[in-house]
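User: Some background: our group keeps a shared notebook of sequences we're curious about, and every so often someone picks one and asks for a predicted structure to add to the entry. Today it's my turn. The entry only has the sequence so far, pasted here. Could you supply the structure so I can complete it?
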Amino acid sequence: MPISEGNILVVEDDLEYSNLLQRVLVNAGSRCSAASTIGEACEELRRFSPDLIILDQQLPDGSGGALCESIRANPASGRVLIAFLTGDKSFAEGNTWLAVGGNTCWLKPSSPARIEALVKGLLRRHDWDGEARKLVGPGLFVDRRERVVIFNGRRSKKLTERELRLIEALSTAGSAVLPRQAALDMVFADSVPGAPEPAMNEMLHKLRVKLPRALARAIETVFGKGYRLRLPEPDEEPVSTRPPSSA
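Assistant: Of course. Here's the predicted structure to add to the notebook entry:
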């Protein structure tokens, strides 16, 4: 399984090693963000919505184990995959990382080829992408298993079936206008024919509140014609020693 399209958060206070990890993962096609402390990692969890966290055992402001436990206790982030990094062989061979909720533990340093292989193996074992997550536009994914959309690494709130249908219909139209009646027919396919336009307007209002801000702004109502999705270019995510600021 390729690791492209995945969001990976590297939590490592050794900046040289963190940059190495990020380069390997970005070259393999993933989107990466980085943190060097527990505080920064918590900020990135709210902003970046990772599929996998590569977590150093010891950080300047606390232990990776404590962070892992707090992540597992939060229903919003509890299902993310967590791979511990450690230079302590006894920690890797023990069960502490498992007891706090880790999925695996890797010894460091590891070669770039081994890092990539370990990440691929972990995602494969946990059926990370399966058939649930679909790329429907530049940087835009629909995840029907989680009932969310993800744009440039930012995750929406839970969406209804009709809201998911609208996102899929708009993305299928590309940058063209989706005619009003076609949108109504697709979105309200489970309802009686001829759903009124006010129902669509009300749903659009609720949908925009749930979406990442940049995606909400990209949904346009074209007066007298219909609706259009004008996606901005996906964010560039350069490898850096500090995480980018929140949107």
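Suggested note for the entry: Residues 234-247 have pLDDT under 50 and may be disordered. The chain has two domains: 7-125, 133-229.
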